[in-house]
Amino acid sequence: MIESIFSAVANFVLNLISQMGYWGVFGLMALESCNIPIPSEVIMPFSGFLAYQGRFNLHWLALIGALGNLFGSLISYGIAFKLGNKIKQFFLKSKIFASDYLKAESFFQKYGVRSALIARVLPIIRTFISFPAGVFKVSLGRFSIYTFFGSLIWSYLLAYLGFYLGERWNIIENYFHRFDYLIVIVIVALVCYYIYRKVKELKSRNDLA
Prior knowledge:
The chain is mainly α.
């Protein structure tokens, strides 16, 4: 089921880039940064392969991919920024999550902008980093700069791999999928630990009451 969905998405990506060229790359990379699961691990290597065939310029390709990511990130950031106060009030009204929210807010205000640079070269995480940045209202200017340069590194790396591998560009997918699974496992493990810790904390409060 998952493989068939991924195959359909991949075919959509390939057809759109083939038909629309640079605009297709820009639009798809923007959608990826809007929290829509369109894998840049397909977008940029295939585009790099087309650069290998002479249809694209590799340097322009990386730049357009990064600009697409930045554009999508700003949309995601803007939505989260507008919803930020409502989300904050929701968590602060909760006795269980209020302290954790404040800690997360403090962390993002201190390190969140810089962490965007690192997050932009990590599969899965790179897609969603803009939303918490908007919720916690980190500096938009600095966030944009770090997002652009992180995305430029990622876009150039993937495009170059596609260019270098040529006809074999799609073997990249298998390697990145393995890394995706690892990150998903780590995220799920952290969520499970967080829930366990909260349940234990709530039980301890009830015992003291």
